[in-house]
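Consider the tokenized backbone below.
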């Protein structure tokens, strides 16, 4: 089976959803040529894992995030040089993957190349969306008539969501080769969360003909109130209920990927009860966008407000950070899926996010204290250039040199040699552009069960971005260079 990678890596296209992030100014023919060459080289030569522990190859994520933020050719070249030294070469699999033996080697990283070649053929013959439906979201790709199956959606959300992130980059940027890698990555991950994605979901959530029609109406026709008689249960309400449940107390203290599997083993059935309480009414116009927005706020609160304690260093949790970077791809991945598949994706994603939150200690959220702080306009470290003497609002204002605090944050993210920082800030800046106009006190948050949710406003995203940079870019006294992501968790002593 030939791997025709030249056809898999065209120039990146515009994103498929209006909720997906735009490409920032700075894109050029030279930077795009370099990006495509590096992505193709990584596709052909490197494995999806870079070490025996199952740590993921982030090279494609890193380069695409930088390109999307407008990084020039020199920076993209330097980022490639920085990350390529960590990668593990791919190798020939013991045998080819076919439709007949597809299920036989799932979860076995030795077959990454074989699954990559299999999905290359599938994508080139059927197209990205047809392959996603057939091999990830269809009932046969998960349980089938016998009740047993490959559980591919489960695998897509495994590994701290990395297969989903990888495929999401491919869909967002219109790069079939990256989608292929994400699918092959899913195939060699484990199905760790069966309790959260039971077979009953495929039989109990089949959409009606009306749901299928209304979910595909243009967004301009989807403006209005929820016409369903079902009361909306917000993601914040689920967080609040789990916070009160003592069954989740005293989770084991872990700093490895085993956190997730242990939560599923011990608490999967109880967690599934809570996930089932979260509502998703496909017949309600605009429901998909509303539910994606709920997940954005919930996961940024988990990372940003749980990480903040008055008078203490910000806890920039490595695992929670992934709950923010992965959010970017929900809109792109949902854009071409069937209604049932959209619902399954968001439900599975929310369940996985909750499992990670519980596994890291289930920290609470001091929303009132967080928004009482004067941190909505984070300033970069000086020195600053002298402003023009006619600068607005005045030459003596700090805004004369930093009119928008997001710009220096993004500038630092592009050049700091950390393959997660630009992904996080790309997400936070984009969410600020989507939801930054929200005022405090709005009814949809006030009506949830999460204490002080009504105090949340659109400044959340820049506040969290500023706290992240303050923590990661401030040198430690005893360590040369920048700080790194935190891994101590939020466990009770």
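A designed sequence for it:
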């Amino acid at each position: 089976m030939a791997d025709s990678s030249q056809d898999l890596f065209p120039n990146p296209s515009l994103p498929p959803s209006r909720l997906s992030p735009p490409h920032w100014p700075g894109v050029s023919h030279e930077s795009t040529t370099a990006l495509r060459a590096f992505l193709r080289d990584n596709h052909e030569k490197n494995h999806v894992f870079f070490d025996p522990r199952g740590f993921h190859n982030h090279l494609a994520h890193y380069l695409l995030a930088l390109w999307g933020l407008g990084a020039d050719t020199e920076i993209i070249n330097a980022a490639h040089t920085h990350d390529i030294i960590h990668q593990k070469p791919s190798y020939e699999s013991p045998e080819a993957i076919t439709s007949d033996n597809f299920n036989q080697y799932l979860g076995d990283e030795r077959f990454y190349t074989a699954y990559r070649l299999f999905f290359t053929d599938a994508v080139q013959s059927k197209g990205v969306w047809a392959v996603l439906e057939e091999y990830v979201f269809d009932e046969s790709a998960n349980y089938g008539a016998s009740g047993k199956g490959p559980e591919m959606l489960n695998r897509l959300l495994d590994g701290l969501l990395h297969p989903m992130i990888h495929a999401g980059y491919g869909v967002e940027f219109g790069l079939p080769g990256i989608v292929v890698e994400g699918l092959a990555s899913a195939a060699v991950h484990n199905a760790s969360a069966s309790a959260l994605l039971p077979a009953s979901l495929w039989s109990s959530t089949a959409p009606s003909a009306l749901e299928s029609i209304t979910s595909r109406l243009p967004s301009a026709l989807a403006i209005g109130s929820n016409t369903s008689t079902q009361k909306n249960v917000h993601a914040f309400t689920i967080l609040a209920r789990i916070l009160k449940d003592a069954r989740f107390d005293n989770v084991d203290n872990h700093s490895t990927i085993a956190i997730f599997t242990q939560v599923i083993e011990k608490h999967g059935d109880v967690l599934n009860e809570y996930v089932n309480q979260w509502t998703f009414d496909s017949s309600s116009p605009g429901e998909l966008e509303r539910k994606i927005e709920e997940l954005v706020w919930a996961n940024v609160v988990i990372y940003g407000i749980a990480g903040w304690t008055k008078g203490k260093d910000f806890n920039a949790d490595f695992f929670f950070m992934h709950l923010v970077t992965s959010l970017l791809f929900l809109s792109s991945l949902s854009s071409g899926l069937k209604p049932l598949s959209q619902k399954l994706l968001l439900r599975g994603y929310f369940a996985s996010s909750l499992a990670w939150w519980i596994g890291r200690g289930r920290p609470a959220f001091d929303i009132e204290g967080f928004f009482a702080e004067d941190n909505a306009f984070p300033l970069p470290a000086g020195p600053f250039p002298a402003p023009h003497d006619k600068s607005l609002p005045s030459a003596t204002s700090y805004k004369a040199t930093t009119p928008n605090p997001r710009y220096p944050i993004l500038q630092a993210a592009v050049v700091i040699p950390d393959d997660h920082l630009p992904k996080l800030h790309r997400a936070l800046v984009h969410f600020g552009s989507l939801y930054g106009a929200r005022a405090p006190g709005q009814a949809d948050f006030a009506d949830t069960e999460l204490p002080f949710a009504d105090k949340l406003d659109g400044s959340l995203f820049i506040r969290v971005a500023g706290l992240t940079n303050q923590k990661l870019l401030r040198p430690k006294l005893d360590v040369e260079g920048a700080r790194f992501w935190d891994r101590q968790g939020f466990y009770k002593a």
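Confidence is low (pLDDT under 50) at residues 206-228.
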